[in-house]
Amino acid sequence: MSEYQKRIFAALLGVLYLLAGAATIIAVAIPEIGIFEVLGISGDPAGGFILIVIGGTLFYGYLELSKGIHEGVAFLHVGIALALVFGMIQLLSTGAEFATMALFEDEAITLGMLREEIVPVLYLALIALAGFIAWGKEFSAGLLRG
Amino acid sequence: MSPPDPLPIPLDTVITGEKARVVSVRAKGQLRKRLLEMGIIPGAIIESIRVAPLGDPVEFRVKGYNLSIRKGDASCIEVVMEVE
Amino acid sequence: MKKAITVALAGNPNVGKTTLFNTLTGSRQHVGNWPGVTVEKKEGIREYSGRTIEVTDLPGTYSLTAYSADEVVARNFIIEDRPDVVVQVVDASNLERNLYLTMQLAELGRPVIIALNMVDVAEGRGDTIDEKRLAELLAMPVIRTVGTSGEGLLDLLDAVVAIAAKGEKHTHTIGYGDDAEALISDLVGILDDDPDLAPRYPLRWLAVRLIEGDADIRRVVSGSSVGDAVSARLADIDFDEYEATLADKRYEAIGAILPQACTICVRKMTGSDMIDRVVTNKYLGIPIFLALMWGAFQLTFAVAEPFMAGIEYIFGWLGEGVAASVGPEWLASLLGDGVIGGVGGVLVFVPNIFILFLILSILEGSGYLARGAFIMDRLMYAIGLPGKSFIPMLMGFGCNVPAIMSTRTIEDERDRLITILVNPFISCGARLPVYILFAGVFFGRDAGNVIFGMYILGILVAILSAKLFRSTVLPGESSPFIMEMPPYRIPTLKNALLNMWEKGSTYLKKAGGIILIGSLIVWFLASYPAGVGYGSEESFAGMIGKFVEPLVAPLGLDWKIAVALIFGFVAKEIVVSSLGVLYGAEEGSAALSDALLADPALSAAGALAVMVFVLLYMPCVATLAVIKKETGSWRWAGFSVLYGLVVAWSLAFVTFHVAGFFLGGA
């Protein structure tokens, strides 16, 4: 039962990351697609690559679990960990940027600027966080066993 | 005495997941010292567990821990396959 | 007050030695270098039951055969400094390999105590260890410790005090078989005839090292009065054979002890194996590694931004304050342009360095760094470097200073030296403003491609130089890549922070002075003789510029650029502001662009030559300071400057003439 849930979770989140990553790369060439702005997607090859790596890892987990390879669950765990790590990096970078602006460049931080920072790597990480809350204990327990 | 050993093969030809027993370490100098102190001594059981994405180096398990060695260096180690 | 007890902390890499050292000594520790080598020396003090205990953290080693600087340091410390007690930290989850070092330590004659670390990990996976039985079999105290929580620490200290009070030598050694033992006792007999050797070395150990073909020890013995007799006895010996026999006997002894004291659970698939299936996966391994490296890079440089801005702000404010309030103009200039500019130049990198070391120590502590090296080794081997060189190369795109400091993770001294020497060719962030200025002015729409080309050129020069160094000044194969893949662990924040603080503050102490002096020299050259405008044609800098003009003329450059390049030694972005001064234009304004474009001495081909020259010519003063510190000598720092100048001049010359042929202007 639990493995079935993990499989579905890996597939869904993996596809979301892959789509977001593809869109982020497409946006480099064609920036003026309406829905991109709503979703906070702007052209960024490196950022798109990161999203695709996270999505690829999760989806690989789905493929292995579907084939009945129990160890595929490791791809889910590592995928979730990557999603959280990069969400955190994004959060810290944004925080640092705003801190620099507010403290040393006398720029006011507007709501619009905050809105611009709501990007896929951040909000998708929230979904990953749900996965971490559900299965994180089992993951770190497995780690400590050596 | 056990039956005569089969012909030794170099360690880098051992397939992932298979176990082998070290027969001799033909390396010289620094490489030899390093291999010996890391537990790759004649008689040791060594298992090939993983190959790096670019095909080299290879990760082995020996004496209960994991060790990665380049194929070029592993070819100096002669082993015989261990049948389970 | 009784004499202090000296303790040497030994052990394999990755056994939690540093954690134990930190909990043992708290904040009372200091870092230095071992005399003559760049291996770090950490010492700390602990007061316990009325005694002062001085702990020296030896470098982590697998054995004491002494083929790397780390091992020589560890061995010499135990033999020459004669610590009262040697504490070996042992990873209980990897006993067999760890006890190999124990067998060698026992031969050195000092009392040994085993700190059995990570028992929780071992038992968590089903092993059982009877440490009392183990202590009996090894004939040395065995104390359970958990480095992170401090469990067992007091027991360990009790054992240290008790054994130091007894002051006995450790005499229990293993037998190496009849053949080797006969040879050893012969040699001990010969060695005993020299009255100088016995007080300095345990003779049995000397004999063992001799038959294992230890070149260092052979030299020591050859210089003694019994040198000839020893050589005669060793004349027809197969050292390789004995080396294997002795290693075999040590493992045999371990193999005899272990089953009596513990049961090791045979594992099929561990948690670490599960993670490794993902991160070294054929398709995902490299992308995940690149993504994580991008993340590390992003964190290092993005998160440091507010701190750097803060430091710049403070120094800007200080500079203005000095300019406004200090009387004599020369003093204001010395303090403002020289001291504050110079110190500011150092401190502005500090946030980068601290954050980088925090990330590196988390990556290393978690065990991922070893996987990174495993994944990248094939690629780096192709250019003659080990896998671990990849991270310094990548960091170089941000700043060469932390990049060069991160070469500490490379064990082999030659590999490390090559990685350090080629690093300045990786185009750091400070060079970008120069490219933006010149490419923007002279190449308009193609500026992006030109700048990208500079980065590629830097990488190519680094790769070719690595190959060149490997085949000339630092000959030999790239060292064998035999690396332990430690199980993954969750790194502790406390250790990561301590590690960061230690390395960051060492950089400040060591490099700060050199950078300050470098800045002062440049300030002096720009300000004197008295009465000239700062950096003007009449200043020493201007004179040097004029003097070297014939040298840069073949590159299509005039004295103004030469002066800017001299200033660029302090920090490469200063090239731009210096040009502003020299062309009498405000930095960042359109006026400088126009002035450059209008200068008849400068062509598009010349602009390319400037960019190539700035990319390659020499490390900035901060980088130079760190090269000096990390290589331990001015020789390599000087070499790096000379080599850089030669390469930069040659390539700028070629660039100018080839580009001149296509673009006109040469």
Automatic annotation (TrEMBL), chain A:
Transmembrane residue ranges: 46-63, 75-98, 118-136
Sorted UniProt keywords: Membrane, Transmembrane, Transmembrane helix
Protein name, as recorded: Uncharacterized protein
Organism: Methanocalculus chunghsingensis
UniProtKB/TrEMBL annotation, chain B:
Classification via InterPro entries: Fe-transptr_FeoA-like, FeoA, FeoA_core_dom, Transcriptional_repressor_C
SUPFAM superfamilies to which the protein is assigned, alphabetical: C-terminal domain of transcriptional repressors (SSF50037)
Biological source species: Methanocalculus chunghsingensis
Gene Ontology terms, MF aspect: transition metal ion binding
Pfam family membership, one: FeoA
Record carries keyword Iron: yes
Lineage top rank: taxon: Archaea
Name of the molecule in the record: Ferrous iron transporter FeoA-like domain-containing protein
Keywords: Iron
Ferrous iron transporter FeoA-like domain location: 9-81
TrEMBL record, chain C:
Chain segments annotated as transmembrane: 283-301, 339-363, 383-405, 417-444, 450-469, 507-528, 564-585, 605-627, 639-663
Chain positions recorded as Mg(2+) 1 binding sites: 22
Ranges for domain FeoB-type G: 4-166
Membrane topology: Multi-pass membrane protein
GO (cellular component) term, any one: plasma membrane
GO molecular function, one term: ferrous iron transmembrane transporter activity
Domain of life where this protein originates: Archaea
Keywords (A to Z) from UniProt: Cell inner membrane, Cell membrane, GTP-binding, Ion transport, Iron, Iron transport, Magnesium, Membrane, Metal-binding, Nucleotide-binding, Transmembrane, Transmembrane helix, Transport
One Pfam family, short name: FeoB_N
Positions that bind GTP: 11-18, 36-40, 57-60, 117-120, 146-148
Main location: membrane
Record: residues binding Mg(2+) 2: 23, 25-26
InterPro entries: Fe2_transport_prot-B, Fe2_transport_prot_B_C, FeoB_Cyto, FeoB_GTPase, G_FEOB_dom, Gate_dom, GTP-bd, P-loop_NTPase
Subcellular location: Cell inner membrane
PANTHER family documented for this protein: FE(2+) TRANSPORTER FEOB, FERROUS IRON TRANSPORT PROTEIN B
NCBIfam families in the cross-refs: feoB, small_GTP
Protein name per its UniProtKB record: Ferrous iron transport protein B
